[in-house]
Amino acid sequence: DSSSGSSGFASKGSFPGRIPVAIGRKRLRIVVTGGAGFVGSHLVDKLISRGDEVIVIDNFFTGRKDNLVHLFGNPRFELIRHDVVDPILLEVDQIYHLACPASPVHYKYNPTNVMGTLSMLGLAKRVGARFLLTSTSEVYGDPLEHPQKETYWGNVNPIGERSCYDEGKRTAETLAVDYNRGADVEVRIARIFNTYGPRMCLDDGRVVSNFVAQAIRKQPMTVYGDGKQTRSFQYVSDLVDGLVALMEGEHVGPFNLGNPGEFTMLELAEVVKETIDSSATIEFRPNTADDPHKRKPDISKAKELLNWEPKISLREGLPLMVNDFRSRILEGDEGRGL
Ligand code: NAD
Ligand code: UDP
Q1: Which residue out of 96, 107, 165, 196 is catalytically annotated?
Q2: Where located (predicted)?
Q3: Model-level pTM?
Q4: What is the mean pLDDT of residues 250-270?
């Protein structure tokens, strides 16, 4: 059984034919939904490199085969084109549930958060797998507490343009804790704050990818509103480390996973300018509805219970995504369906 030992890879599942990957633990079979996307593909790389088997489920709504092509041919890797809204039968030890259109441009069109989470929790229940939900800082809405702790219940508009996403994730959290309480499914909940890095979708409208792509294309960076709203930006490898620490730990959560370094959008534009092109300019545009005024995680809980904290500052992390963006822009990859 893969639950044994001090490795922390506790799981109720037990499948024949497991090959040890390290002293003290068996190789795990892990599903990553949304594994062809930005965060998912980095997570898959980490799980494969430590010796586990990974099955990616993705419908390529915003994800790309290009993000995983380096793993094609690896016998420990499988890719299934499937919409998580529909149930699927698999024998697995752990499920990282990331599938979800994660940018305002895309998420309005999709019921993935609720229906997809329900079907994947059903799978976890059936096979006794541990289930990790990637929730979001958006559950705090336009927060009246700053920085945000996990105990804060949030300030969310239930009928706004973003509601499908933030209320969808709030419902997903409810489903996860109810499956934990009512059906004894082992769940883990991460509340992810704004994350950036290589393989981000070029055209999904998030601020870091927009500014970086605009600066590379010599277009003005589009600052929405007065640019004084704040976000806290986390580099993707820090997030992936946090997700794995959470899955392997003993706590349900929720846990904030984010970098507490807080920037206004004008400050972010300045850092992008310093990093990419000192002649880059900005252009103001009207802001979107219900845009949170500020956001910054309190990560004391994750520090204490998961022994996790981010290591890479914005100034260190931004240059690490520039080469990837430059080459994709040169190749004319607009980020969808490849
Ligand atoms: P992404 O768009 O790059 O990845 C999402 C993946 O899910 C894509 O590969 C997409 O094709 C897939 N997908 C969408 N709907 C699906 C469906 N119905 N069935 C199967 N696959 C589906 O986004 P990301 O930034 O990698 O986000 C991953 C997760 O992390 C999401 O759940 C998101 O809500 C959460 N999150 C991300 C951030 C961030 O800043 N990146 C912040 C908070 C939360
Ligand atoms: N934003 C911006 N210019 C852009 C895209 C976004 O100024 O080209 C702003 C947006 O109004 C918001 C912040 O950047 O205040 C973060 O937006 P994003 O969509 O990246 O993430 P979220 O709002 O989900 O935190």
Answers
A1: 165
A2: Golgi apparatus, Golgi stack membrane
A3: 0.92
A4: 97
